[in-house]
């Protein structure tokens, strides 16, 4: 029951935060969105897990930056607060970016698009995964 409520609050918070940014950093939507996210995460994963995650020694600087961003949003400085939040979250989860990027590059359509934007010619490699594997010796060799 707590997990459903936490997931609902987290989803509502993300939606309100997105809408607040789309409406040119509407402070009220961002405030309510931040509050929903702050309440929803501990309900979803549990307060002990949240405490262990955010207070880990390697993440304390990022946690402080995100907290400052949340306080700035609540105090009526939404643009600066969102910048702090984004910077803190990138510091907190930045080490996961190479893994996520590698997984996205292996996806069929999206991986091809990313390879095209990188300027690499991975066309042969990306199309090879769709072709059936050849069996037996090559045709141009004598048996």
UniProtKB/TrEMBL annotation:
Entry-linked Pfam families: Got1
Cellular compartments annotated: Golgi apparatus membrane
Presence of keyword Phosphoprotein: no
Compositional bias (Basic and acidic residues): 120-131
GO terms classed as biological process: endoplasmic reticulum to Golgi vesicle-mediated transport; retrograde transport, endosome to Golgi
Transmembrane segment boundaries: 7-25, 31-47, 59-76, 82-104
Region called Disordered, residue ranges: 120-143
Regions of compositional bias (Basic residues) in chain numbering: 132-143
Bilayer disposition of the protein: Multi-pass membrane protein
Cellular component GO terms held in the UniProt record: cytosol; Golgi membrane
UniProt KW keywords: Golgi apparatus, Membrane, Transmembrane, Transmembrane helix
InterPro entries xref list: Got1 (IPR045176), Vesicle_transpt_Got1/SFT2 (IPR007305)
Family membership noted in the UniProt record: Belongs to the GOT1 family.
Name assigned to this protein: Vesicle transport protein
């Amino acid at each position: 029951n707590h997990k459903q409520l936490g997931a609902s609050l987290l989803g509502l918070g993300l939606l309100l935060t997105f809408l607040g940014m789309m409406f040119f950093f509407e402070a009220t939507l961002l405030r309510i969105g931040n509050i929903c996210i702050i309440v929803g995460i501990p309900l979803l994963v549990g307060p002990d897990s949240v405490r262990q995650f955010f207070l880990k020694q390697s993440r304390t600087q990022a946690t402080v930056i995100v907290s400052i961003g949340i306080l700035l949003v609540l105090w009526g400085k939404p643009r600066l607060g969102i910048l702090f939040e984004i910077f803190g979250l990138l510091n907190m989860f930045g080490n996961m970016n190479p893994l996520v990027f590698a997984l996205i590059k292996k996806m069929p359509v999206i991986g091809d698009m990313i390879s095209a934007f990188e300027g690499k010619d991975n066309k042969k490699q990306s199309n090879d995964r769709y072709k059936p594997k050849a069996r037996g010796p090559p045709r141009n060799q004598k048996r």
